[in-house]
Structure formats: C-alpha cells, structure tokens
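Example record

The entry below shows one chain as it appears in the dataset: sequence first, then structure tokens.
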Amino acid sequence: MEKHILMSEKSKAGLPAHYNFPYNATASADIAESINALRGSGHGAKLAVLILTADELSRLEASGEHRPSDSVYFRIIITGAGIHESLSESPLLAKVAHVTSSPFSAAELSFHLKKAFSSMDLEVKLAAERNAYQNTLLDMKQDQEDLINIGRALSIEKDPDHLFRLILMLSKKITGADAGSIYIVEVLPDGEKQLRFKYSHTFSKELPYEEFVMPLNRNSIAGYVAVTGTILNIPDVYMLSKSDPVAFNSSFDHEHNYRSKSMIVIPMRNHLDDIIGVIQLINSKEDDTGNSRMTGNEAFEIVLSTPQDFERKVVPFASRYESLMEAVAGQAAIAIENNRM
C-alpha cells in the first residue's frame, strides 16, 4: 500500500524544522485537489495523513473530497490556532487523529504519524475481511442456485456426449476452474476394471484431447481417487512431496505450455455408493480474499495466458467445494447411469 503525508503550507509552522518524514511527504496548496489526485493514481489502496489547520478542515468539508472511497484512506492531524468547539460537529470528526494548538516536537509528530497509519492499516484489513466475507456469502448463494439447476439440467439431458460436457462445464462454473476432465470406470469382460479418460476442456486455451484408458490403480491422481474414494484438494500439484500418496505427471503441461497448479478431484458415486468415475478440476480462479469483486463467472471471464497469470490469478480451491462438488458428483453419477439404461 502507498503511504503519503499531505501537509498544508499553513500547518508547516507547527511542525519541527528539518523533520525526516517516514513516508512520501508533500506540501500542498490545495489538500482537496491532492486527495483527488491520489484517487486517480495507480492501483490499490493509498493511505494518507493530512496535516491541516482548523480553517483548512472546514474548506475540505465544503469541497466534498472527504466522501468515502475504496482507494484512499486518510486521517487528519489538526495543528495551529483557530481550533474551536464547532470542530466536534465536523463530518470528518471520525477521521481526526489528533488536535493541537502547540507546535509538535519531532518525537510527538513521529508518534502521531505512526498511530494514524496503524489505524488505517487496521481499517484496510477489516475492509478486506468484510469484502471477503461478502464475496463468500454471495458465491455460496450462487453455488446453491447452481446446484439446483445442475440437478434439473442433468435429469433431462439424454445425449451421453452432451451430458459429459454439461457435467464438466457446470462443475467448472461453480468452482471457477479453468480446466477439468472426466474419467469413467469401465468393467472389462473378465471382471477387471480400467479408467477411461472421457472428456476434457480448458477455458484459457484450446488443448487437444483424445480418449484413452489407464489402469485403475493408485499410480495416478485420478486413479487414486477412483480406487480410494478420497477427495483430493491440492493447492499446488508441483509442491507434492515424496511422502504424499499421489504424484503429478507434468508431461501434459510441458507439451502444451500449460501450468496446472491447484486441483480438486472428486469421486462420482452412484446410489449404491459404487465409484463410477472421477471429476478432476484444475486451477481455480475464484479469489474470495476480498481483493477483488467476485462475479460467479470467473471460470469464463479470467484468461490464463502468461506465467504471471498462473502465479497471480490461480488460487487453491476453497474447502467448501469439497462437499459441494461431492453433491454435484453424486448427481452426475446418477445421471450417467440413468443415461446408460
């Protein structure tokens, strides 16, 4: 976060000479104009301590530049003569960190600047937490609506290929995933089982896929989930250690210049609790930390095209998706089995 100190020319008389300000300090002839300039510069939150006289505070009120902003947080230190009781009626009272009619010593000014910035740091943190909470609530509400719609959509889809596409598309929308695949358990005539890579899709780039079969064992991530029935939620597949029960095969990434990072893998269980397949989702783009406003369409809207995109825009799958996707996978399994009849 950028930190600024804006002082009026008049207020400088109450400040210690040759004081070494801890952050970018500017003497301003028009504080309101300086605040407005901060609002329009750069990205992210800016914190500003305004050092004014009481008369200048009144002019700031009249300018309207004290209106709430998502980009600029400020505290006010009032110094000099002209302080009177009407100050307690100011709409900016909550922003006033300190009032004095006496000149500051260097130690006093350092203390009050540190206190003001500490207060704003806390305000920014609380605002981010509030936004994160609101984002999560809105996303959970949308997820519940999507879950109902998924049940309806899967129950009426009769085309097997369309059904796989629908399952994967809706799963990615709910979780904000960039990519995903569906694997189906097949029973061979001799009773042995294998895992078929049935369908795959990536939003950020066109990637080729062909159906193939693999042994139904624990040697792959999808195989491990199909055999054990365990939901895996992995923040970064490249950070798996030798002690983890699964390992990631990076050959596809290297071949197609992609970067798999976060991954959630869910078994599809039918009404008899048999595992008939696996849904594998890759690279969640739903950042619910409060740093950005979530739309519920991150899977479609956010494109991963550079290495920096994969580092900045990909996040771990939220833990709430483990139970939600378990419900989706259950509906998908029943729809697939009904479609086979």
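Notes for this example: The radius of gyration is 29 Å. Residues 157-340 form a domain with the Beta-Lactamase fold (CATH 3.30.450.40).
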